Amino acid sequence: MTLGNQGLIMSWTFDEGTGSNTMESISKVRDRIHYVFNQAEFTEPCDPQWRKGVLGNGLLFDGYSTYIAHAIHEKDPNITYQYRSELSIGVWLAPRSYEWGYEGKLSAIVNHHNMDRKQGYLLGMYRHGSWSFQVGLESGDWKEVWAPDGHELPKNEWSYVNAVFDGNEGIMKLYLNGSEVASTDLPRGSRLVEAVDTELLIGKNNHSSLLADVFSLHMFSGMLDELNIYNRALSEQEVIDAYRYVIDTDYGGAHPQLNDEDIQLDRTPLLPDRHRPQYHVSPPAHWMNEPHAPIYFNGQYHLFYQHNPLGPFFHQIHWGHWVSKDLVHWRDLPVALAPEKDQLAPDGIWSGSATYDAEGLPVLFFTAGNDSASPNQSVALARSTYPMDNDPDLVHWVKHPEPLIVQKKGMGAFGDFRDPFVWKDDDGWYALVGSGIEDEGGAALAFVSQDMLNWTYKGPFFKADIQKFPYLGPIWELPVLLPLGRDPKGENKFLLLVSPVGQGADVEVFYWIGQLDMQELSFIPDQEEPQLIDVGDFHFTGPSGMVDPKTGRKIVFTIAQGDRTSELEYKSGWAHNGGLPLSVYLREDGRLGIEPIQELESLRGAKRLSLYDKTLAEANELLQEVQGDMLEIQVVMEPVSAKQFGMKIRRTPDGEEETLLFYDMNESMFLVDRTNTTLHPGEKCRGVQGGKLELLEDYLRLHIYMDRSMVEAYANGLKSLTTRVYPSRLDALGLEIWGDGELLVKSLDIWEMKSIW
């Protein structure tokens, strides 16, 4: 407390460093720190995240569950209002991310206010680092002072903030790092009205809006330290002295620096989560949807993803970033692209792709969200700062200031224009953008450029017949085009992937194999009806793809959705993960072949079982010794009289919980039965899902990857079935071969799998 105790009415130093409460130093009251993992259902309980502060320790607020409630008054309607002529707040803070600003509310740093009655005070942040101090006056007015442009609170850096209300002199002031940055006049003799019927909250707005009936918005994300509240107006010199005391005493006169590891999202609390996959790529914590923009550069693969760093819910989308040397073991990197205070993408950085510029350097194409524009989606570009700075991981990206492609009337379904897929060849750059054609259905629109900056519209690349195939929907997202090479007739074939959305759409990944007409820049499918790569239900979506420069393979990435309620995602602290990278290729019979990439074999641990030519009973006898929720399984089954047959996984010894992957010969269907997957009343995974699969051979060859809640099963290299399982019982770890008749197990190999984290 660098100003002494004169007028100090509340103080939190956050020096505890452990535990789930913190002391308010004046009253000596220990306040509870609300944090999702204080009590945990799926992972190990743990303390809130304490880190090094500017003085001693500080507290890291996760952006959606961490806050402190401090009772000021008993909630007695007979208590008369307390009036204050002066009030000051000082706090060190380091934001990790900014909120979108839903309903015009601030993400509270500290507040004790009732907006409906215009009482109390609020110090908080708004969009893109802007910040404000606001008070309710005895006159019934609500007064605000805002930091001007150029004085935003920077992310991942310490700032010392002071807010001063001086009703006697009629002024409110804001200070940043010891310097006054804003003031607003009040009537002399103004008095602040305390909001006596509510709690003082640190890190949460007294009037937070709810998203999905679960998530409180307007919560602070980042570090707080040394929060002091005074019943007097601090002078300018006192503010300067408080700032200088910290930097002179502990930092040799320099402004405190924050270590990246002290503020970045930390996956450690989630590692013991019994449902969170361990060898599938995932964010450190919180929300992701589709991975996208894979690219290879300087010996490393880069993969980006749609990400909300504030919590495990869909909101305020950024581009997260991973890097890998082998497409299997990934490292978390800082957010690559975030909404900023500009006219390009202030409201979201939506999906896109990556390619190379004329010098062979990586560039990112993304959907720029700007709700003040019409349409609010356009195609934009970001360049890496490499090689201008020493940035081998491509951490830093700079956005081109203007959108490159803006949708005009007659250019697809106006207002739906997103997810550019861009590639380069010797003749220039080409782009597909997801959209639709009114009354006709979803479409991928084609564009061409000679310089990567100026683009010409060429018309629909390919469009659906919504009358014939209504499940293809009115709008397509995430178009992907990959070359497959020549078929046995010598014709050059391509793979087109799309994800339908909108009324009547089946939100899955559909594909066609066909030819590319470069003259018209259009796609000619071999057959009109689309096909599915994956026959699971809503778990294999959000496609992206690349041609691997090292091997020439065509690799597809997807999101594996979580299939959970918002309540369970809140409790878990994460939502969704990536699917395993898939190699896609053209088979000799003209069909699309799919296989998980070979590099996944590097994750194999101990081999748990290997057998050949066993009866069903013999195989199951040996399987009794195999338990696990992180396994790779390869099994070949030959039906003798069985018409339905497959494997039960995540099975309890009594069979009360189990999930069945099976093939139905009569219907030519590849299916999963989740009827008995879980007894947990809140989990959604239920029922039977699947789709058509013509085997054209006598054996069923299943390649299964189990990774806690994730299950990916590949049948005969033709189809995948991706699903989710959330057993309630801890002993749901068993396996069993199943058939409704006689069955031979030609081979069965099982490996334990290692975590990539």
Please characterize this protein's 3D structure.
- With 757 residues, the chain is mostly beta strands.
- It has 3 helices and 55 strands.
- The strands form 11 sheets. Strands 1, 4, 5, 8, 13, 14, 15 and 20 form an 8-stranded antiparallel sheet that branches.
SSE inventory with pairings:
Blueprint: E1 8-12, E2 21-24, E3 29-34, E4 49-52, E5 57-62, E6 67-70, E7 83-84, E8 86-95, E9 107-114, E10 119-125, E11 131-136, E12 142-146, E13 159-166, E14 171-176, E15 179-185, E16 192-193, E17 200-202, E18 210-211, E19 215-216, E20 221-230, H1 236-250, E21 286-297, E22 300-308, E23 318-324, E24 330-337, E25 348-356, E26 362-369, E27 377-384, E28 397-399, E29 405-406, E30 418-425, E31 428-437, E32 441-449, E33 455-463, E34 475-486, E35 492-501, E36 510-517, E37 522-525, E38 531-532, E39 541-547, E40 554-560, H2 566-572, E41 574-575, E42 577-578, E43 582-586, E44 592-596, E45 604-615, H3 616-623, E46 630-639, E47 644-651, E48 659-664, E49 669-673, E50 688-692, E51 700-707, E52 710-715, E53 719-724, E54 734-739, E55 743-753
Parallel strand pairs: 21-41
Antiparallel strand pairs: 1-20, 2-3, 3-6, 4-5, 5-20, 6-17, 7-16, 8-13, 8-20, 9-10, 9-17, 10-11, 11-12, 13-14, 14-15, 18-19, 21-22, 22-23, 23-24, 25-26, 26-27, 27-28, 27-29, 30-31, 31-32, 32-33, 34-35, 35-36, 36-37, 36-38, 39-40, 40-42, 40-43, 43-44, 45-55, 46-51, 46-55, 47-48, 47-54, 48-49, ...
